[in-house]
Amino acid sequence: MSVRRLGMSQLAKDAGFGTRIWSEAGYWGGRFYHLIVAAGTGAVLVASSVQHVSPLILAGWLAGYGLYLLVRFYFIAGQREAAYYQPLPQFVRAQIAMGLLTLVIAWLGEAGTRGYLWLLYSLQLMIIGRHLSTGLLLACILEVWVMLAGLRLMVAPWRTVASFIQTNPDLVVQWAWIALIGFVLHYLLRNIEARDGTIAVLSEINRLADRRQVWPELGARWEVVLGTYLRNVGGRCGSVWLCNQRTGEIRPLTTLGRRLGQSCLVTDPNGEGEPITIAADHPVAEVVRTGRPLYCRRQATLGDRLSRTHGAVRVYPLPPDIQGRILVPIGEGDSGESRVLGVLSIDFDRANPPREPLLDHYFEFLGDMARWVMPILKFIQQVEEDQTLHRLGVQVGSSLHLQDVLDDTLDALTGPLGFELATISLVDEEAQLIRCVAGRNVPAEWVAQACHPLDSNDIQADVVRRGEMEVIQGWDERFDRRIYKRFHHEQLIRAFVPIRRQTGKEGRPSKVQGVVEVGYHLRTQAQIAPDQLAMLEALMDQVAVAIEQARLFESTERHRELLAQLHQVSHKIASARYPDQVLKTLGEALQRVLAADIVMIYRYDRGTRTIEPPRVFGEVWGRRPLRLPPLDRGVVAEILHTGRPYYAPDAPDDPLLSEPYPPLTEGEKPGARRTFTLRQNIKSFAGVPMLVNGEALGVLCVNYRRRHAFG
Question: Mind listing the domains of the chain with CATH numbers?
């Protein structure tokens, strides 16, 4: 038959065993703890009385004790057992047991006072030491002393004190043993209860820290944690503060007042309980900044100079009914490199102030307990970060205008994310530049001067090419020395983060659209937290989507406006009466609508197979006459023969546009026969055949002196 085992913590408490030693014998000892004690008590009673009382009287004593055990184990159970183990019933139980034991010893007379029955008083003292206060235990020890002395007087009345002491030399030994046993049992039982309370709160904290717990339930369960802290140190009020290192804000998460009928003064004339900043002149902020515990008292004392913890004591105007306050940091990481996530604060009233010589022990105990709250604070921070990112993503992505997206992004960077300064640089594909387009808390000249080629060694161009975030303090070879010196960048710590979606098509990283630069002045903050960088990268994914949408919207708007303008041009062309008038109207309109530098229209006569001199619209540099393109080579011939458009975003690198024909001979200077593209500094070119019924009647050439990406 299998035996149903009780919970380990209850058995350990009953057996008085620690949590590290747990054997089969230990289990059975805990399982039948009360029966073992009862059997031992009965054995001592029988062994001490069997030679001095009749069997009938001894049987009556044992029957009475057995009746008590029957009532205790079969009638006092469940809810009755919970009420039975309250302080008052246990005090009455102990007093009745001491009275009955005293009667038994008195019944036995000389044999009782000289025997060992008096040792059973230790069982009653154990009951009092477990359920009642230390002061009451001392009173009961004194009561036992009086009982033992009274029993001796009943057996041998004294005439003088000297004769009484001479007659009872072992009485003082009994007194000493009773006091020693009572104190040791009280000390051990309180340690066991403190251990059980610690185990219970740590188990509850572990359960609270479980991410599977529903978020709204966390607030209500803080009371379990704070209530245990307050019981262990005798505090009146407790609170837990959460520190947001990004925004520099510290705010209370929860507050609990322990004693019934007393409120916990969280909001007092000093502003306790309200959010504060890390830089504030406030004890909580001081603990966050230093990472060390602190004790606040209402007024200074002469003992501060002699106290070895005086460096951790601060005079602070506390609420009227609060005598002292202990604050300990809740940190993450190794000592020396820990980051404070929050602060545990415990208030003490005048009836139970903290013992200042034991402050180090208070700090150590509360610090060890507070570390178990760290997973909860991490969970709360993660939930708040997710909520913040969602809110910022909605805010940034709510507009279709690029400038609004940039403004909302800067608001997010210098607001909820907590950065002191920020700039946004976007990639200009047409000009092949990375250009700063917006900034917050930076000089306007900085924004205007931060523009560099994408193929340069500049830090932002390098971030665009590699697509990786960098955090830099001090000089770097990729910085623009002119900007670095003028705006004192040696005083900054900055992060450069690419703006791009984490995954594009087919799960591959998307193209980098720009770079966000954020940071702090070193006098304000000397480092950027890893979780802050993680939030920044996550936000950039949403910013990239918003910028894509805004650019697509603006591109669509420009396309719509272009089509509207071309529609107007078509009406003007249709109303023209002569070919020259048609070409003039077409060229001028296209140069204006396409924002081109030079528009050229070549007419082709299919009958004579000749190309006529072009009509040119725009400013042509120099006085050198234009040469007619040949029909057997060059870009115009290519377009006429294929009947397809020809686009060259990088015209200087295109052989059809930049290489002379025939090739230069040996000894001929490279600039002797430069093409039109090179002479006019054309960066981008587009050529379109002019078709009628599928036959090319000419070529329209559009030239840009800046790089232009053809959509």
Answer: 8-198 (no CATH), 210-378 (3.30.450.40), 397-555 (3.30.450.40), 577-704 (3.30.450.40)
